[in-house]
Write a structure and sequence with these properties.
Layout: H1 11-16, E1 24-25, E2 40-41, E3 43-44, H2 55-68, H3 78-98, E4 106-109, H4 112-127, E5 133-137, H5 142-155, E6 158-162, H6 172-178, E7 183-189, H7 201-210, E8 214-218, H8 230-233, E9 237-241, E10 252-256, H9 258-263, E11 274-277, E12 282-284, H10 298-314, H11 316-335, E13 340-343, E14 353-358, H12 363-372, E15 375-376, E16 378-380, H13 385-391, E17 396-400, H14 407-424
Parallel strand pairs: 3-15, 5-6, 5-7, 7-8, 8-9
Antiparallel strand pairs: 1-2, 4-10, 9-10, 11-12, 13-14, 14-17, 16-17
Helix pairs in contact: 2-10, 3-10, 4-5, 11-14
Bound molecules: ligand C6P.
């Protein structure tokens, strides 16, 4: 492996767009890149946490600040109009990218977590009550699990969890048992950030709709890595974050079907989201602005637009194929060690990440050794603590891949794990 022809994407030319991949690491962290011990080439395999940003995206954000930095929807001066058009166009671009009907269905938030909270508060607080259930899966991220748990406590609703079987797949028979006429919301992760499992969300949407329930799909790990069409899934709500898909931090997306968003009350109140205000009462702006109170994420929205342009130039089918190639390769190579346990489904059934443990070694110790090799991965519970409890481990080590990663980098990971094995033997 490792030659250019075998990759679904042009990794060599993609890597040139990401100057950070030239970094060497290991020196004094207060002087990034300049320490005397900065000798190890960076092998960045922590993309499920945050991906890197290509020059095209940084340039587009810089262009906004250098050329037309201004608040949106507030001024009739030229710069404000330019910024408003760019900001609104970013909503259109997102809508097109995920198959939404239009900008009315695309709300910009801070991240996936805020998108989840928006629906939980703006819809859940008024619609849920005793007797209602919210059905999650056992592999939900805390963004979903904690949020629905708290809303259920406030409203008297009950949270139930669809089982994940020993192979890391969602138990669809259990889903069919749990989702019934008491179900008001099904909230499921599309691609698990710990197991790499791909959830059959369209099937779950059918189940939810058969019982007049809504479905919220957490697409934080799917939108960056595969083509997604929210209408084909028939999702009622769908959320993801810009920083995991080559965009800047500080921007997330909430997709919602227009008729549902229309009926919902706002989540945050203030400027930008109102149509008229008197001392007695207020009325709301049209969608999506009703849900974007205060000065919104202008530069971030413009950056997300640029990130989508970049990803679509590469081609989302190719992005997915590259992810799957690297995940399967990493899965196969790590499986060769009999003291490494990998969590989740087989290599050919997963999204682009592999979480594992080395027998008898805490994930933090392993990741510290990997760091000594320049290999950046994530260690911890990845905000899926109950799932780790179920797996019977406090933490795991996770490598996650993106379009600029190579099989040589997977080899570097595997060599570093092997070194750790010798060290702890
Ligand atoms: N996961 C990781 O796995 P925010 O932080 O709001 O941008 O995204 C939250 C989130 C929601 N759902 C899933 C499936 C996720 O993977 C994440 C973020 C990161 O490393 C941080 S825990």
């Amino acid at each position: 492996m490792g030659t250019q022809e075998q990759y679904p994407v042009d990794v060599a030319s993609i890597r040139e767009d990401f100057p950070i991949l030239e970094r060497k690491v290991g020196g004094d962290i207060e002087t990034p890149g300049e320490g005397p011990d900065d000798t190890r080439p960076l092998v960045y395999l922590d993309n499920a946490a945050t991906s890197h940003t290509p020059t095209a995206v940084v340039d587009r954000i810089a262009d906004y600040y250098y050329s037309y930095n201004s608040n949106v929807h507030r001024g009739i001066h030229h710069l404000s109009q330019e910024a408003s058009v760019a900001y609104e166009n970013a909503h259109d671009r997102v809508a097109e990218f995920i198959g939404a009907a239009g900008r009315e269905e695309v709300v910009f938030t801070k991240n996936t977590t805020e998108s989840m909270n928006l629906v939980a508060y703006a819809w859940g607080l008024s619609e849920l009550g005793p007797g209602d259930t919210v059905v999650l899966s056992e592999m939900e991220h805390h963004a979903s699990l904690v949020t629905w748990q708290q809303i259920a406590k406030k409203t008297g609703a009950t949270v139930e969890y669809i089982r994940v079987d020993d192979a890391g797949r969602l138990d669809m028979d259990h889903a069919a048992e749990l989702i019934d006429d008491s179900t008001a919301m099904v909230s499921v992760v599309h691609v698990s950030n710990t197991l790499g499992t791909v959830t059959p969300v369209a099937e779950l949407a059918d189940l939810a709709h058969d019982h007049d329930a809504y479905i919220f799909v957490d697409g934080a790990q799917s939108v960056p890595t595969r083509p997604v069409d929210v209408e084909a899934i028939d999702a009622d709500f769908f959320a993801f974050s810009g920083h995991k898909m080559l965009g800047p931090t500080g921007i997330g997306v909430l997709y919602g079907k227009e008729h549902i968003l229309e009926e919902m009350q706002p989540y945050l109140y203030g400027g930008e989201m109102i149509r008229s205000v008197t001392y007695e009462d207020s009325t709301w702006e049209e969608l999506p602005w009703k849900f974007e109170a205060g000065t919104p994420v202008i530069a971030q929205g413009i950056g997300l637009h640029a990130a989508i342009d970049y990803l679509e130039d590469v081609g989302m089918e190719r992005v997915q194929a590259h992810e799957e190639l690297l995940a399967e390769y990493a899965y196969d190579e790590l499986s060769a060690f009999d003291d490494v346990e990998i969590y989740g489904p087989p290599g050919d059934e997963r999204g682009g990440l592999v979480a594992f443990n080395l027998d008898g070694v805490h994930a933090h110790d392993l990741s510290s050794i990997l760091n000594d090799h320049g290999v950046a991965i994530r260690a911890g519970d990845h905000c899926t603590q109950p799932l780790h409890d179920k797996l019977g481990v406090p933490a795991s080590t996770r490598a996650s891949f993106y379009i600029y990663n190579t099989t040589d980098e997977v080899d570097a990971l595997v060599d570093a794990v092997d070194d750790a094995r010798q060290l702890f033997a």
